[in-house]
Each structure stands twice: as structure tokens, then as C-alpha cells.
């Protein structure tokens, strides 16, 4: 953030407008501005109209409290009479614990406002940046600087956005390993709905995205607003309703005691807080997708179909088996082969060797180059698994440098998978890990890293004894940024015990994420649906698993396993060596189908619908010009009526006519015994308006069956 130099007037109103989003900032008496409005752009009102309206609807003082009007500012302050959670909490040995900032400088462009405010008594300065990006997302950042000579301890710095009065329903998420992003809905009530994370990563149980809206909102209907903290460490998000009726969402990093102490002139900066809006969740999600797609380093070439070795062999690696697996993958159309965990010194199980990033000569006597070169000769990319932030208690690195383990005092934290967390805030540890990864990327011409992170941070103290989660998260970002700078063509996937590190902080830096270790198609349909609120299809790792899912034990036909993977970054996690020659045609057919559709899937707009209370789910991608769309439809459970009725095909051009046909062909998906009329109606064309409102008749499928629909404009 660059600090503004233009003196701020005592009071004012600013309209920021970009990409269908308006933000109105108002302030008086030199106080920190409040967001008076954020959401869809007004059609007719300009800045002068909005300033007049803001003055006319100003809040009245509340009885039995301070005489002044106390709006919900970007940084609410106890010193102004705000009775909710303050935005800044900190002190100097018990002093300067309350603030009353005065606005000193403010600069605004059509889509950005930057402001600086000071509290001379507390000797503090805050800088706040409010920006609408080219996707229409609202981005908020703040920093606090210590102007005094005595150290200032920061306990919290969070930013707040208002919740509209008619937004009375709350949606956020929870979860666990193999069941990520489980939605939770409820009414907003007086008091605080507080979600905190202390695990040092985003977490399986992450709130993920905090959404408020009119009661009953869904993917296509209802005005919604959502807030997300773009940070891969500890976080806190609070939805708070005061007795005055004012409701806010406050979001920022969660800091442990003493984690951030500012000396004179030092500054602490918050993570970016992202806010989106839309008519339904699909429109809200589209803004996040658009932002990621406009990144300078967003992948522009087709996303390679990926084969990962993990579930095929686990730790049982040997050169002949891996070469055979790669050859079998190439034969069915795989474009990237990834060697997962088990290739480095002494790694025969999950108990040892993290940090010893040298190829194990006992497993690979001729080195990994034998495999990497062969994979490249087969025309595929070569990927390699790392867990750079971790260190096994039983490893050479831990024996040589026990001081490189994050810990408190003279004790180690509780182990998880017999591993600890490597202190990347230690420059020597950081350099050793970086150099080890760099050497292998250079030696093997690694095209892709699967970057894992398989435990929470517990008692993560640095060499100085202070909590180090903040610094560890910054170091993780720095390491990825450094590798990407050094190897511009290297791609990185974020994995964390499956989907435990998915947030905008990491999404801004990587090429794809792994949503879950659970490949059960029933669970994947649900996980993809809500992970997709942030993640566009081309960044969502989506693989075909084994017939019997390893994480749930359920058994499914290939078509049902392939369909949830179709609308993502497609791949496979199964042992294709075990397929007979005649059996390989079917996975090859699914790979071919995905490749024929991926230009659409990886650039289009994601849409969702459901029927029978979620027993039937639809997920689709519509081309940017709405000339084409593909939808997957899955029957997850027994439905409450029979026949199952209709399901809408959302997102199409209302005026255009479309031809509708089922996918894939009968060679991949047997024709259902009974089909609706449109199934064979190749010459029929329907208006997009009708397909969106009336939909199409569903074939009477059994539970745990699915199919796809292709829709093509004919005029």
C-alpha cells in the first residue's frame, strides 16, 4: 500500500465504482470512514446523488449511550463509542489500549481510496486501502505503524464491512478430513457469531467464506454478500449484530499473544480481506473466478490431464513399477505424471524422513532421472511431491538441526504423523529447504510440484520464543514466490491433507489446489460445489479414483466416478496398469471427452442447480459468449417423487435457441432403459429462457448414477 499525501476534509462522501460494484464511503468529524453501501452498481445515481442520500439517511444517536452518531467504520473504535468488537486491539504494557483516530490524508480514484489516520495520544497511525478490482471484488487492506518509542503489542487488526438490513441469513462452512466445506446455515442473531482458526493453515474446518443474504438464497436467487480472508494462517471472522440493528462482518488475522510487537517505526499489515456480492451464490463466485483468471501468472495453456501415483502404489515405489504406471497412463492419454510421496531418503511410510530431500538410492539406484526422462520421452510432464514446511522427528535433518523445529521452551509440540513443523522463519532452515527443492527441479527438469502440508501447527514458537505462525505463513508465501520467480514455467499445486489449505492467499500464487483426499464421487460432487465458490474449474484438481474408493469403501462404476472430475482439472488416481487392454478404452474415452471440452470448462462461467432438496445436483459451465454449455447431473440419493421431474439449465442466453443432447455417448455411459423425449431429439431447439425456467425432464436414474448434457446455440 502507498500512503496518500492529500489532506482529508473534515467530512465527505466518496463513490467507488468498477465492474458492476459500487462502494460508498462516508465520514464526518475527521473520523475513519464507514462503508455506507457496497453491492451492485446503481443504475442512475452519481456521486452527488449518493452524497445527498447518505446525508438524508444518516443514523440517529442511540438513547442511553454517547450523544454522537457512531457508524460502523472500516475500523470500529471503542474510543468513538462503538460498543461492538474494536478493529484494533493492542497496548503498551497496559497503556494506549483505546484509540480515537483522526483522518489525516485521503486520496481517491474512481475505483480506489487510500487513507491515513492518526491518534497522537496513542502514537499510532493506520493506513487503510479500499479497492474494487477489475472483477468487481472489494479488496480491503490495513496497516498500523507505531509512532512512539515504547513497543506496541498488536492483538488484533481487522476490517469491517456492513451487512444490509434485509440480509438475515448466514452461510459459512465447517468440515474435516475427507469431508471438506460442509455448509452451515442459520439466522443472524444479536451478539457475535465468531469463527476462529488456530491451526496455522486454512483448515479442514475453515469458515472458508462467510455469506449473508436474504433468507432462502441459493446459487441462482437472492441478494448475497460474502467475505473471505486471503490468508493461509490463523484467522478470525466475526458476524456481529448490535442491539441498534447494525450488523457487520469483521475479518482479519488471528494473532497469538506477543506474536506481533512493533518497535518505533515498525508496521504490521493485515492480509487482504475480499468481499463479493451477487444475485445468488453463482454470481458471487464468478467475481472470485474472474480475479484469479486475470492474474499475470494464471495458466493460459490447456490444463494437462494428470496421473498421480499415490493411490496406485502408496509408498511401494520402484523404478520398474513407476515406469510401467507412466507408460500405462500415456497410453490412455495422460499428459502429466506425478510421483507422489515415497521417493526420498528412507521414506517407506509416513513416520520418517521429511526434510531429507535427496533421492533414495535404495529405491532409485540410478536416480530419479531414469523416470523423469522416460516421462518426458513419453510426451508427458513430470511432477514431484514435496512437503517443504515439515520435518520428521526421525530424519537426518532433525538429528543435525533440532533447533530448526518450531517449538516452545525445551519441549517439542505433540507430533502428528510423527512429524513436526520446520521453522521457515529461520533463514538457515529456509535456505536449506529452498536449495534442496531447487536442485531437484533443475536436475530432473521438474514441471510441477505437488506441495503438501499434512499437519496443524501446535505450539509453533520461533527461535526467539515468540509465536511464529504469522512469520511462518509469510515465509511459505516467500518460498513459493521465489521458486516461481526462478522457474517461470514451474507449476505448483497446493495440497494440505487434502483440502485444508484453500484460500485466496495461496490461490493467488499456485496453479491448482487439491480439494480433498476423498475421491468418492458422492462426496466430490458436494465438495466441488462449495469449493467452487472461490476456485474456478481449471484450478480444482478432480481425479477419477479406484472402483472402490479408498477413503469411504463405496464402490461405483467408472462413469459415476468420472463425471464429477469432468468439470475440473481432470486426472486419475487409479492404477491404470491393472486395466486389461480392452478396459483401457473407457478411461481413454473419458480423457478424450474432457480434452474436447476443456477449452469451454476452463474459461466459462460456473453454474449450479439442484432438485429434490439436493438429492439431484447439477453443475455446469457456460461459455463466455453463452454459445455453448456443458452440465453434469448426478442422482446422489433416492428422490422423494417418481419420476424425478425436471431440472433447470441455468446461465444461458434467454433469447438464443439451443440444441440439447446427452453426454457422453453409449460407449462410455449406457443408455438408460427409459429416456425423456429430448434425449433423442437432435432436431429440437429450445429458447435459453425456457431451459433456464422449465429445464429438462430427468431420466429415471437409480441413486449414484449420473450423466452430462451438452447445449449448443443454433442461431
Automatic annotation (TrEMBL):
Residues of the active site: 452 (nucleophile), 517 (proton donor)
Gene Ontology BP terms: carbohydrate catabolic process
Gene3D superfamilies: Aldolase class I, alpha-galactosidase from lactobacil brevis
Glycosyl hydrolase family 36 C-terminal domain boundaries: 621-701
EC numbers, comma separated: 3.2.1.22
Domain Glycosyl hydrolase family 36 N-terminal residue range list: 33-261
Reaction(s) catalysed (UniProt annotation): Hydrolysis of terminal, non-reducing alpha-D-galactose residues in alpha-D-galactosides, including galactose oligosaccharides, galactomannans and galactolipids
Domain of life: Bacteria
Swiss-Prot/TrEMBL keywords: Glycosidase, Hydrolase
Keyword Cell division set for record: no
GO terms assigned for molecular function: alpha-galactosidase activity
Annotated substrate binding sites: 177, 340-341, 417, 450-454, 495, 517
Family: Belongs to the glycosyl hydrolase.
Name of this protein: Alpha-galactosidase
Amino acid at each position: 500500500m502507498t500512503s496518500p499525501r492529500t489532506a482529508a476534509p473534515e467530512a465527505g462522501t466518496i463513490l467507488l465504482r468498477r465492474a458492476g460494484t459500487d462502494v460508498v464511503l462516508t465520514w464526518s468529524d475527521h473520523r475513519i470512514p464507514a462503508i455506507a453501501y457496497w453491492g451492485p452498481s446503481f443504475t442512475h445515481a452519481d456521486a452527488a446523488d449518493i452524497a445527498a442520500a447518505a446525508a438524508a439517511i444518516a443514523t440517529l444517536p442511540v438513547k442511553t449511550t454517547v450523544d454522537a452518531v457512531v457508524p460502523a467504520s472500516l475500523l470500529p473504535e471503542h474510543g468513538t463509542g462503538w460498543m461492538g468488537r474494536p478493529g484494533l486491539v493492542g497496548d503498551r504494557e497496559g497503556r494506549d489500549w483505546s484509540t480515537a483516530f483522526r483522518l489525516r490524508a485521503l486520496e481517491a480514484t474512481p475505483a480506489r481510496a487510500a487513507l491515513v489516520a492518526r491518534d497522537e495520544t496513542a502514537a499510532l497511525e493506520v493506513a487503510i486501502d479500499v479497492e474494487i478490482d477489475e472483477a468487481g471484488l472489494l479488496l480491503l487492506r490495513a496497516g498500523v505503524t507505531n509512532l512512539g518509542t515504547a513497543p506496541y503489542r498488536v492483538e488484533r487488526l481487522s476490517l469491517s464491512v456492513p451487512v444490509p438490513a434485509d440480509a438475515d441469513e448466514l452461510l459459512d462452512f465447517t468440515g474435516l478430513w475427507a469431508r471438506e466445506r460442509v455448509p452451515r446455515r442459520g439466522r443472524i442473531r444479536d451478539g457475535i457469531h465468531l469463527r476462529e482458526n488456530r491451526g496455522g493453515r486454512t483448515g479442514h474446518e475453515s469458515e472458508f467464506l462467510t455469506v449473508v443474504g436474504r433468507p432462502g438464497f441459493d446459487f441462482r436467487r437472492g441478494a448475497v454478500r460474502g467475505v473471505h480472508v486471503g490468508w493461509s494462517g490463523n484467522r478470525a471472522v466475526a458476524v456481529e449484530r448490535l442491539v441498534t440493528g447494525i450488523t457487520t462482518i469483521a475479518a482479519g488475522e488471528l494473532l497469538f499473544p506477543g506474536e506481533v510487537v512493533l518497535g518505533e517505526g515498525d508496521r504490521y499489515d493485515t492480509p487482504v480481506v475480499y468481499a463479493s456480492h451477487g444475485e445468488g451464490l453463482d454470481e458471487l463466485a464468478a467475481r472470485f473466478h474472474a480475479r484469479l483468471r486475470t492474474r499475470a501468472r494464471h495458466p493460459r495453456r490447456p490444463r494437462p490431464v494428470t496421473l498421480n501415483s499415490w493411490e496406485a502404489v502408496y509408498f511401494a515405489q520402484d523404478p520398474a513399477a513407476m515406469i510401467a504406471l507412466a507408460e500405462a497412463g500415456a497410453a490412455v492419454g495422460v499428459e502429466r505424471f506425478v510421483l507422489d510421496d515415497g521417493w526420498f531418503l528412507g521414506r517407506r511410510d509416513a513416520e520418517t524422513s521429511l526434510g531429507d530431500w535427496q533421492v533414495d538410492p535404495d529405491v532409485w539406484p540410478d536416480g530419479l532421472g531414469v523416470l523423469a526422462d522416460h516421462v518426458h520421452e513419453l510426451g508427458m510432464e513430470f511432477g514431484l511431491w514435496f512437503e517443504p514446511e515439515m520435518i520428521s522427528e526421525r530424519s537426518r535433518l532433525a538429528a543435525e538441526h533440532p533447533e530448526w523445529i518450531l517449538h516452545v521452551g525445551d519441549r517439542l509440540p505433540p507430533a502428528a504423523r510423527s512429524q513436526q513443523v520446520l521453522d521457515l522463519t529461520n533463514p538457515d532452515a529456509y535456505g536449506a529447504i529452498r536449495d534442496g527443492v531447487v536442485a531437484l527441479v533443475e536436475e530432473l527438469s521438474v514441471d510441477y510440484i505437488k506441495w503438501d502440508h499434512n499437519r496443524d501447527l501446535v505450539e509453533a514458537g520461533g527461535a526467539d520464543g515468540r509465536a511464529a505462525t504469522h512469520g511462518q505463513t509469510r515465509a511459505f508465501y516467500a518460498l513459493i514466490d521465489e521458486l516461481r520467480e526462478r522457474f517461470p514455467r514451474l507449476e505448483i499445486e497446493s495440497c494440505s491433507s487434502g483440502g485444508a489449505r484453500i484460500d485466496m492467499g495461496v490461490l493467488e500464487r499456485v496453479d491448482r489446489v487439491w480439494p480433498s483426499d476423498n475421491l468418492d464421487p458422492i462426496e466430490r460432487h458436494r465438495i466441488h460445489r462449495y469449493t467452487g465458490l472461490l476456485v474456478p474449474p481449471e484450478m480444482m484438481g478432480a481425479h477419477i479414483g479406484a472402483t472402490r474408493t479408498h477413503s469411504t469403501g463405496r464402490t461405483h462404476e467408472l462413469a459415476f466416478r468420472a463425471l464429477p472430475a469432468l468439470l475440473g482439472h481432470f486426472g486419475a488416481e487409479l492404477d491404470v496398469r491393472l486395466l486389461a487392454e480392452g478396459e483401457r478404452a473407457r478411461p481413454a474415452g473419458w480423457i478424450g471427452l474432457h480434452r474436447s471440452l476443456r477449452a469451454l470448462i476452463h474459461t466459462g462461467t460456473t453454474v449450479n442447480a439442484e432438485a429434490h432438496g439436493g438429492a439431484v445436483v447439477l453443475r455446469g459451465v457456460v461459455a463466455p459468449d453463452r454459445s455453448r454449455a456443458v452440465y453434469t447431473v448426478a442422482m446422489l440419493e433416492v428422490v422423494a417423487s417418481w419420476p424425478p421431474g425436471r431440472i433447470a439449465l441455468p446461465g444461458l442466453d434467454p433469447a438464443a435457441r439451443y440444441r440439447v443432447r446427452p453426454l457422453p455417448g453409449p460407449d462410455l455411459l449406457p443408455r438408460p432403459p427409459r429416456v425423456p423425449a429430448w434425449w433423442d431429439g437432435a432436431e429440437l431447439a429450445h429458447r435459453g429462457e425456457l431451459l433456464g425456467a422449465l429445464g429438462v425432464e430427468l431420466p429415471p436414474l437409480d441413486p449414484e448414477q449420473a450423466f452430462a448434457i451438452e447445449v449448443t446455440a443454433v442461431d
